[in-house]
Amino acid sequence: MLKPWAIYADIGGTNSRFALQMDKTAPLEHIKIYASSDFNEPSDAILRYLHEQDLAAPEHIAIAIACPITGDALKMTNIHWNFSIAATKAKVKVDSLYFLNDFEALVLSLPDLKENEIIQVGTGVAAKHGVMGLIGPGTGVGVASIVHAGESYQALPCEGGHGLYPPQDFEELEIIKFLMRPKADHAACTVVSIEDLLSGSRGIGNLIKAMASIHAVSVPNWSPKELVAHALIQKQPFAISVLARYCAILGNAAGNVALTVGATGGMYIGGGIVPRLGQFFVDSAFRACFENKDIATYYVKAIPTFMICAQYPALLGAQSALKNILKINNIN
Q1: Across-strand partners of 269?
Q2: How far apart are CA 302 and CA 294, in angstroms?
Q3: SS3 1
Q4: Is the Cα torsion angle 93, 95, 101, 102 positive or negative in sign?
Q5: Fewer CB within 10 Å of terminal CB in the chain, N or C?
């Protein structure tokens, strides 16, 4: 039974992605994707992967996971996992196990992304060694930034996706008012966050219901994938209007993140939803809403925005994080 040098994972509320590295100079290989809901905690997914690849426990494991890393006890935001890092190490029988926030991993991948792994949306030129910002809708909404620090980069993860959303026009004000009113099928939101509008099933579902009410149309029971298909393939007018509004909201939110972190090195859009939109996203109001910042418009106009289209960037970020951790601790 072979013993790999490292295993990397990118675990979100929907999918858990794994890859291995047989030695520290080898490329990532044997990428496998599981449904996170098939497991009760990370150790179950790790052991499944090791079993299917017929591998012994590795020297190191680095896991990017969709929750804040605040100590030994971790609780995921968008799936019902509560677990201990120490207990996970014991179950997997590995001494070197590191957890990092999934958007910390994703933001660590930004300096190494190749030209064919990003698409620029709009104008702007990145400042050399400028702060890079990141926002990404998926099951939730992740936010992070990364700063150049001497010979390396320092990731600054946060929970910005739970910040409150500021409406930028009267229709968005009506959307927020709709979500804050009690309804027969669900309780009212006490506040409306970025995640309430941009996350996968929950945010897109909220947006569909609110816009159906505003435009007096019946509420379609669409998943995010179905919304995209109805808009981009079937050219259904209501679906197009919802998806266009989604892009506008994301532009506004991304512009606010860029202002907050000072993202002169570029603002990047990741997550599982936006890459599916392709040219629709590029042609949308995203960039106009990103730049619409009143007296600070001049500042964000200079910041380039990029859509990440790399296939597994968070796995590459977990690899980068492990390399940095081992270097800091003088571990070979």
Answers
A1: 135, 307
A2: 14
A3: coil
A4: negative
A5: C
